[in-house]
Specification:
Layout (H helix, E strand, L loop, with lengths): L16 H4 L3 E3 L4 E5 L2 E12 L4 E12 L8 H7 L2 H21 L7 E6 L1 H6 L7 H7 L7 E5 L7 H14 L2 E7 L6 H7 L3 E4 L1 H9 L1 H16 L3 E4 L5 H9 L4 E2 L14 H45 L4 H4 L1 H4 L4 E7 L10 E2 L26 H8 L5 E2 L3 E2 L6 E10 L4 E9 L3
Parallel strand pairs: 4-5, 5-6, 6-7, 7-8, 8-9, 9-10
Antiparallel strand pairs: 1-2, 2-3, 3-4, 3-10, 11-12, 11-16, 13-15, 14-15, 15-16
């Protein structure tokens, strides 16, 4: 190994491992690469499994230094690469540096996450075999490597699928990086079926600022799971964001809150202690939120129970539900048959603000509408006589967030479902 400075004009088109290794040199405690007069070093950030409470992988990050020892931005270094050959060279040089530094750590189980320049993902095949040779020469099993691909930077679906398939056939895992930023979409997840989807930091920051976004994230993670991928939340920097990540049911987390990048793997105890403390606070917060939710619902549950009892005594529906309609958050009551079809119109509270919004007038008349798909109907049918409470959801009737109370009751002739909607703003 040598300190040879890179001469761009002397590089061959086919950049094999043998062409790149001369630009690697061993320092006292790590391997570094040489690009122009810049030293390329590695840092590793742990990726934690929330369930296992420990690191399960490490993302290799580039830490460049100028000749005078000052730190440089990785993006600035990649911007220096001129032309296709030099871009491929720099990307491959970084992967060798990261792989050797990873293998020098006392870890024989966890994953190595490697980023690949999107340009190289597409054009790398024109510059000779490389990564399979790296795995073989340095004796690292492909199943220990997770290749991170910035799918938003690759517009050609065929080329993206081809790149993903190459690494899968090699035996590596594939992760889609920064999902949720730029042009990311679920169609690509369904097409290429990555093993891991890394959610862009912008998602967690928006969720911390907006409860509506926070409500959506568990559904987003659920879609990723149903598509056959694991979910990783990156960029978790504080306790609030960590609690949101835990609430979203992601599989893995990464960020400064758990551990900062370092040249040597940080001890796992720090992240484990952080997760244990986080789990304790999450449990407390969940109990508090559940308690507040039930406290807020208490008067409505009591009034809805009166509605149920008066209906069972034979009182006409409108009169039976009046005590429920008189409460400030109540919007409407309605009656469904056993198939989920609405019998008659809504019994409404005219004090509800959402009902006066003319923009939703086409949805106001719900006579004969079918609500069989709604969870509140299905749960009520499944447990007759028990009042069910839905989670907050967007009401099609008023365009606002609402909670529905429902109960299935036998009126002597048939099974019916009584329903009542409440406004449920944050």
């Amino acid at each position: 190994m040598t300190n040879t400075a890179m001469q761009p004009n002397s590089l061959p088109v086919r950049l094999t491992l043998d062409h790149i290794e001369p630009f690697i040199h061993l320092q006292s405690d790590c391997v570094s690469g040489k690009f122009r007069d810049i030293q390329l070093c590695s840092a590793f950030q742990p990726i934690f499994s929330l369930a296992h409470r420990r690191p399960v992988g490490y993302e290799a990050l580039l830490r460049p230094r100028a000749a005078d020892g000052t730190s440089l931005s990785p993006l600035a270094v990649f911007d220096m690469a001129q032309g296709e050959v030099e871009n491929v060279f720099l990307d491959r040089l970084c992967r060798i540096v990261h792989t050797q530094n990873f293998l020098a750590q006392s870890d024989d189980t966890n994953w190595l996450f490697l980023n690949i320049n999107p340009l190289v993902t597409i054009i790398g095949k024109h510059h000779g075999a490389f990564f399979a040779d790296v795995l073989e020469r340095y004796h690292i099993s492909p199943h220990r490597v997770v290749i991170e691909i910035l799918e938003g930077k690759i517009l050609d679906e065929g080329l993206l699928a081809e790149s993903v398939m190459f690494f899968k056939e090699l035996g590596c895992l594939v992760a889609i990086d920064d999902f949720g930023a730029g042009h990311s979409n679920f169609e690509r997840i369904w097409r290429i079926q990555p093993h891991i989807v890394k959610l862009d930091r912008s998602i967690i920051t928006q969720a911390a600022a907006n409860r509506a976004v926070r409500r959506v994230i568990p559904n987003l993670v659920n879609l990723i799971h149903e598509a056959g991928s694991l979910a990783l939340m990156e960029g978790v920097e504080n306790e609030e964001e960590a609690l949101i990540a835990m609430d979203s049911d992601v599989d893995f987390v990464q960020g400064y809150y758990f551990a900062k990048p370092s040249a040597m793997f940080p001890p796992g105890e720090h992240g484990q202690n952080a997760i244990d403390e986080l789990s304790r606070k999450f449990s407390q917060a969940n109990k508090h939120e559940t308690g507040a939710y039930r406290t807020g619902l208490h008067p409505y549950l009591d009034a809805f129970d009166v509605f149920l009892k008066q209906f069972k005594l034979g009182l006409e529906t409108g009169a039976a539900c009046q005590c429920f309609l008189d409460l400030p958050r109540t919007e409407r009551c309605y009656l469904l048959d056993k198939e989920g079809r609405q019998l008659g119109g809504n019994f409404i509270s005219y004090s509800a603000p959402s009902l006066s919004d003319p923009r939703f007038k086409p949805l106001a008349d719900s006579r004969d509408a079918t609500w069989a798909r709604r969870h509140y109907f299905r749960r009520a049918i499944g447990k007759p006589g028990e009042i069910q409470v839905s989670r907050p959801y967007l009401s099609i009737a008023g365009g606002n967030m609402c909670v529905t109370l429902s109960v299935a009751v036998f009126n002597g002739k048939e099974l019916l479902v009584l329903c009542g909607d409440l406004m449920w703003n944050d």
